[in-house]
């Protein structure tokens, strides 16, 4: 079986679509489709089926993805074993703004312990922006937020959204309820707005930004409350537990690897990073 075809199959699954897999591998979507047809011919079964406007994996396709990951990991391990440890490598690492303070430094410390001469170029932005930069080959590896039903990347851990305000601030005095939220692409933004509308709560979007520092400053100035990931809550803020506010969704934090990432950045290496970070 052609491992290049298996790489494309895994890229489609990891990045969610033929379109993104095409950008990641610097091919056209039609070329990706042709590769999958060749792979289907090799295995003698359909790997994708239409579900609405989307192409989704068949049961045979899901099974092949499982084996494809194992085959590619063995290939990566063999190459890494033959080439030996890498020295003086540069990692273009992406991270959402809200994970910089409490997660990024931990990840970088673990990576440095595993590869002492590693150096970093850090890009921060929303998960959507990080995916775009990976598609362009500008980011090798990104920490992204995904929904629990997504197959994108490798799961780091699960988190949840929480409502937060300045410690001791009576947020119920805000009339209308004033919100400082992340960009609309953020799950917490859409869930907060939709939930408040369903409850009939009078609210205003005081500020929408991708900058966690600004959100924290507005909360400390008692201008608003916010909906953020629990990992992002600092010591000056408190989690609001109230039936007046809608529940926020669970999310998964994952590593997403660009298809154009350097050879040394293997799935096995990323999995070891995840194991050490969790400890």
TrEMBL record:
It comes from the Bacteria. Transmembrane segments: none annotated. PROSITE patterns: HTH_LYSR. GO terms for molecular function: DNA binding; DNA-binding transcription factor activity. Keywords: DNA-binding, Transcription, Transcription regulation. SUPFAM superfamilies: Periplasmic binding protein-like II, Winged helix' DNA-binding domain. Residues 1-58 form the HTH lysR-type domain. Gene3D superfamilies: Periplasmic binding protein-like II, Winged helix-like DNA-binding domain superfamily/Winged helix DNA-binding domain. The keyword rRNA-binding does not apply. The keyword Methyltransferase does not apply. InterPro entries: LTTR, LysR_HTH_N, LysR_subst-bd, WH-like_DNA-bd_sf, WH_DNA-bd_sf. It holds the Pfam family LysR_substrate. Belongs to the LysR transcriptional regulatory family. PANTHER family: HTH-TYPE TRANSCRIPTIONAL REGULATOR LRHA-RELATED, TRANSCRIPTIONAL REGULATOR. This is DNA-binding transcriptional LysR family regulator. The lineage of its organism: Bacteria, Pseudomonadati, Pseudomonadota, Gammaproteobacteria, Oceanospirillales.
